[in-house]
Amino acid sequence: MTTASSSNPAAPAFDRLLLTGAAGGLGRVLRPRLKRLCRVLRASDIAAMEPAGEGEEVVVAPLEDAAAVHALVAGVQAIVHLGGVSVEGPFEPILQANIVGVHNLYEAARKHGARRIVFASSNHVTGFYRQDEVVRPSDPMRPDGHYGLSKAFGENLSRFYFDRYGLETVCLRIGSSFPEPKDRRMLATWLSYDDLERLVVASLMAPVVGHSVVYGLSDNTTRWWDNTSAAHIGFRAQDSSEPFRAAAEARQPRIDLADPAAVFQGGGFVTKGPYEN
Ligand code: 15L
Fold first, then answer.
1. Domains held by the chain: number
2. Which pTM value belongs to this model?
3. Cα separation of 171 and 154, whole Å?
4. Alpha-carbon gap, residue 191 to 239, rounded angstroms
5. What residues contact residue 274 under an 8 Å CB cut-off, 6+ apart?
6. Nearest CA to ligand 1 atom 13
7. Confidence of residue 4 (pLDDT cuts 50, 70, 90)
8. 1 in a domain, yes or no?
9. pLDDT tens-place string over residues 214-229
10. 143 domain residue, yes or no
11. What burial class does residue 76 get, using C-beta atoms within 10 Å of its C-beta: 0-12 exposed, 13-18 middle, 19+ buried?
12. For a pocket test of ligand 1, which of 81, 82, 94, 122 has the largest count of ligand atoms closer than 8 A to its C-beta?
């Protein structure tokens, strides 16, 4: 572990907060934005990260290594879990990082008494709903590949850890969190970085969450997901994909309804594979 000296002066909500996946796209966005919530932010990944700054610790830990994950989780009150494989692909790496890895994380959290986990699930848990349907978090899962299946496992695992051990989780079914929506699909699925921060902070700070599931999207005009059941988290999106509509439609003037990627909510993920392992 590399450490830079402690202290976030204004009474923070958490003494130590763990951010896994800190080297990834969203990890790099959230790392500086979560520091205000904690005295020490422990940032973890398997890839190279920025060195520890003031009030930070940096830990390299593979999620499939149970001993490393136990050491990683010791002493933290809450976890923002972004770590693991974040795209569709062959089963074995997803099995290790996302399935074995999330089990290691929850076991460690239970053992060390962490209070809450914000679990980066994904819209790909329900990717095989059609784009003309509106889905609620309580609707049956329809994963669109190995990645979506692994996130479905994580959601069920976290439900078990709440029912059995009282460990709270907010599962964030994140849509498409990028600087701007890249295509027509993302007009519905886009989550701005500022709204991502609002969603994660609300999930960490809401007084009681039990086991909650919420879709991560901005205040988009086109929407496929109904978050009414997650109002208790207190997340209010403030951005919208609408200002990007004209550009997205110009980039993609025609929709090919023979293409499953244009029919199903999971987009291009629904046609990936099969893989040979
Ligand atoms: C995800 O879950 C991925 O992590 C991200 O890279 C995007 O592909 C996103 O879904 C999406 O559906 O756009």
1. 1
2. 0.97
3. 9
4. 8
5. none
6. 176
7. low
8. no
9. 999 999 999 999 999 9
10. yes
11. buried
12. 122
Tell me the CA–centroid distance for residue 206 and ligand 1, in Å.
25
Q: Distance from the CA of 189 to the center of ligand 1, in angstroms?
A: 9
CATH number of the domain enclosing 149: 3.40.50.720
**Domain-located, residue 9:** no
Residue 8 CB–ligand 1 contact under 6 Å: no
Range of the domain at 53: 14-271
Separation between Cα atoms, residue 181 and residue 199, nearest integer Å: 18
Indicate whether 258 belongs to any domain.
yes
